[in-house]
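Table S2 (text version). Query chain:
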Amino acid sequence: MMPPDQNMTDANRGCGERLRIAREAAGLSIEDVATRLKMPVRVVQSLEAEDWSRLGAPVFIRGQLRSYGRLLGLATDTVHAAAGVEPVRPVELKPRTYVPRMRIVAEQSARRLVYVVITAAIALPVWLATQPHLAPDTVSGSLDVPVELPGEPAPRSTRGPTPLVASMAPVSARSPAPAAVGAPALELRARDDSWVELVAPDGRVVEQGLLRAGETRGFANGELGAVVLGNAGQVQVRRNGVEQDLAPYLRANIARFTVSSDGSLAPVGH
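Corresponding structure-token output:
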């Protein structure tokens, strides 16, 4: 890539003209730039013409200027200053409720302990009743008193003790399934600063503002209904730990897609 000439530092020159001169000095056409940055040709033309009205929110314009300036070797701060685009004011983000892992482990252990106690309470009586050496001897006898007649021997009982028969119905117990602990169903990870808009299925805005480089957001299935990502090429989207291809949802480096209740992604309007 050829460095920009010294005339590019002229403070009276707009960012669009600086980009155009640097592009021509590098021997690139508008189509070449559009191909390398994966932008529509009209977006590159609008940046050089400083026609911000065709490019959307200021955060998107700054991201596109940053990408164009890096391609041509220009200082990003200088290009932004020449463009006169207002910087993005980060909104105050409220942290999501975090449940410590030790609390989750303690709740799982308590459920398992309850299962063990219930199982012991059911199985112990059954085991005691089925042990022959612990079962009490039961002897059945007649309540009739034999009468001895003169000159006749007393009758002898020919019946032995009646055995005890225990009938136990089968008892089943099931352990309550512990709650699954793992990665969020949908995760957003910013490799560079990116503006985001996250909307719940009922239309409520969950978050809107700047997602800084290195920050992540995680959501369970059913928490999000729609997502808009500025500077989308620098945002990694994972579903159940698998990175998703954002190409079907990209337009001018802005990704728009919906999220179904099971976490699958779809273009807006489908």
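Notes on Table S2: The chain has three domains: 10-83, 100-138+160-181, 186-267. Confidence is low (pLDDT under 50) at residues 1-12, 138-147, 164-180.
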